[in-house]
Amino acid sequence: MEAVIAYSGRGLARPRYYANAHDRDEVEIAPLAMPIRDARGRGTSLDVEGFELVRDRSAVTDFADAAQVKAIHVPEIATLIKDLTGATRVEVTGAGLLRFSERSGRAGSLDNSMPARFAHIDVSPATALSMTQRLAAGRPHARVAQYNVWRALSAPPQDVPLALCDARSLSPADCIAADAIFDPPGGAPEWSFESYVIAANPAHRWNWFSNLTADEAIVFKTFDSDLRRATHVPHVAFDLPGCPADAPPRVSIEMRATAFWEV
I need a surface site. Which of 56, 173, 258, 259 has the fewest CB within 10 A? Predict the structure, then answer.
């Protein structure tokens, strides 16, 4: 099918965007209709395309319960990434990000809870290396990689699913350095790091997974120190063409993990 991907233009010297106050974003949005393939059943992998769909039932009964997510889901994610990658140590960072499509009326009701509406990579390599060095805490390792685990909690079909770009179709020239700014509610200090927003390229091969259930998870890569493998995956929320008007609004949770192959 064809769907609109919100790319970034090249008119700004240094784009910047906020976790919550999107009225302050400085990103030149350049939407473009692109072919997008349903990757369900196609056998994609973390080290080739940079993403895959896995069967992964969680014991969590309420993903809105942060304490339950921390106590149950964080260890589940660490085990999942270890089993998928063979890493010797996995550090799960944060207790998960709940996000909601705009139609739900809940987008923006929690910290960083709106869909990511323009194509991006969460961290630049420089940011990733800085983050992983802190997590390594001086312990030697031969390789380190960062992963996102994305799970739809609402029933299918999702009105605003996740699109993922095959890492092999990405050119370094497509990546525009940007500032990702976190502006916590309640007046806490803002903090930021370098990420990438993505410029259009007709060579991009976009994918999505149809009819996701809560017993499945999309795992995709945001950094890998082993450049022989898929390194990072542009991704974006998009409006599903032809989605039934009575489909439930998307609810999702995203977990992030860093894997080490220690020596």
Answer: 173
